[in-house]
Amino acid sequence: MRPRVFTALSAVALAALATAAPAMAATGASDVADQLKKSPVYVDPGAANQLSPAQADALAKKIKDANKPLFVAVLPNSAAFPKATILPNLRTDTGVTGLYAIRLGDAFTSGADSKVMPKQAVQNLNSAVRAPGTNTDAATQLNAFVDKALPQLKGHAPASWGGGSGSGGGVDTGALVGVGAVIVAGGAGAYALVRRNRRKKAEEERAALQRLQVVVDEDITAFGEELDRLDFHPAEAGADDAMRADYERALDSYETSKTLMAKAERPADVTGVTQALEDGRFSLATLAARREHKPLPERRAPCFFDPRHGPSVEDATWTPAGGAPRQVPVCQADATRLRDGQDPMVREVDTDQGRRPYYDAGPAYGPWAGGYFGGGMLPGLLMGTMLGSMLSSPAYAADYGAGSYDAGSGFDGGDVSGADFNSSDFSGGWGDGSGGDGGGDW
Q: How many CA atoms lie within 13 Å of 191's alpha carbon, on the beta-carbon side?
């Protein structure tokens, strides 16, 4: 058994052997963080009237059973926990990538690393549990938040949680010693299983990349053909420096896309390719506007139905089969088709069941679509489709790099990242106009 595996298993066993101490009143974010490293739910004694020990235990069990990196703190509204900084400070001091929810007095907010949940999804959850007419007692609100968040949350629970409860208490040390011995004894078998799973994952990624490469090569070829049809010459009459810069960016995007695709080893690597193509097509749209003396186009996402259509010009209502209506960015041609009651020209790809729209074709197309529709936009567009449901699955994130289209570090949910995170993901307010800098609301 390798030393790293033995060390990890020993750490788990030792964490399980630790006897949880009764919760002490926290003097700041660092004290709360110390408690959250041991259990997903911390209730400060100053807020004990908000959530009973039994309620805290039940909430912690729900989170642990789901094996998700969701941290809940119930705190008194006091100077020790300033609204403006408690959320990012708690994330910094805990140091674990995940979703953090705080009930501060009667106020509530949450924030998450984009690796585990897009910022827009967090804001929507905050709004849902604070909506007028909802029951805002702590137990009801926190359970509603956790129930809504867990199915969407990516990643795994941190190893430091072990097997304790939400509010602390004693454990049977002798029984846990036996458990620890079994864990260590089974280390060799666990390592063999890890190696086998890694090989299987690598094979699946290779197969996914091969299928995905067909679609990406089509995109690169289509963009190259657009460049050929452009008939622009940097020295032509009327060409200025701005036009030449647009043309140069388009050419650079074309070369970048080819280079990145040639180096791609995993499906997640394709995101950079489609990002380059999206940037190149916007450069061409800007160049066309300059040559025709028209207003420069707004920087918008590409057409949802087929990014090869170029930048979108408006948002239109679209309802997938069996799904709910939503606004999607569309090109002028597809906008006209939708207004006329016709079907849009959807990008279809090969599947084992024949040609299917890309959003109903399987998980490999997530990184491809993520390059075109980044920044947390994609899950909302695809909600209710096959790919949309896969994007909300932790297995998808692990196998196909679902988080690659979001900003953030290379740490997955539940990993220890220390202070390496995007602070804007934790810049929310409290729904009462206080705290935060515009990222969300308390």
A: 14
- Which residues are within 8 A (CB) of 68 and not within 5 positions of it... i.e. 6 or more apart? 98, 99, 150, 153, 155, 156, 157, 394, 413, 414
Classify each residue of 340-354 as buried b or exposed e, where b means 16 or more C-beta atoms within 10 Å of its C-beta. eeeebeebebebeee
DSSP state of 416: B
* Residue 172 near residue 65 (C-beta atoms within 8 A): no
Q: What is the pLDDT along the chain (442 residues), one digit of tens a residue?
A: 455 544 544 444 444 444 334 456 777 889 999 999 999 999 999 999 999 999 999 999 999 999 999 999 999 998 889 988 899 999 999 999 999 999 999 899 999 998 888 888 888 888 888 877 666 789 999 999 999 999 889 889 998 897 544 444 344 555 555 556 655 666 666 667 667 777 777 787 888 888 889 999 999 999 999 999 988 999 888 899 999 999 999 999 999 999 999 999 888 889 999 999 999 999 999 999 999 999 999 999 999 999 999 999 999 998 887 778 889 999 999 999 999 999 999 999 988 788 989 988 877 788 888 889 875 666 667 766 666 655 554 444 444 544 443 434 456 778 887 777 777 778 767 776 554 433 345 5
User: Can you tell me the distance from the alpha carbon of 236 to that of 228, in angstroms, rounded to the nearest whole number?
Assistant: 16
HEC sequence for 206-221: HHHHHHHHHHHHHHHH
Q: Take residue 7 and report the two structure tokens written for it.
A: 């060390």
Is residue 150 within 8 A of residue 68, CB to CB? The reply is yes
Which of 122, 156, 121, 24 is closest to 80 using CA atoms?
Answer: 24
Tell me the HSE value of 65 on the side-chain side, using a 13 A CA sphere: 8
Dist. CA 313–CA 297, nearest whole Å: 8
* Alpha-carbon span 98 to 71, nearest angstrom: 7
Sign of the CA dihedral with 418 first, then 421, 424, and 426 last:
negative
Is residue 166 within 8 Å of residue 56, measured between CB atoms? yes
pTM of the model: 0.49
How many other C-beta atoms are found inside a 10 Å radius of the C-beta of residue 370? 27
SS3 327: strand
**Residue 32 corresponds to which tokens in the numbers above?**
């709360």
Task: Report the alpha-carbon distance of residue 121 to residue 380 in Å, rounded.
Answer: 8
Contact 91, 100 (CB under 8 A): yes
Q: Are strands 99-104 and 107-112 parallel, antiparallel or unpaired?
A: antiparallel
d(CA 101, CA 104): 10
Q: Are strands 326-330 and 107-112 parallel, antiparallel or unpaired?
A: unpaired
- DSSP secondary structure code for residue 198 in this structure: H
Would the CA dihedral through 409, 411, 417, 421 be positive or negative?
Answer: positive
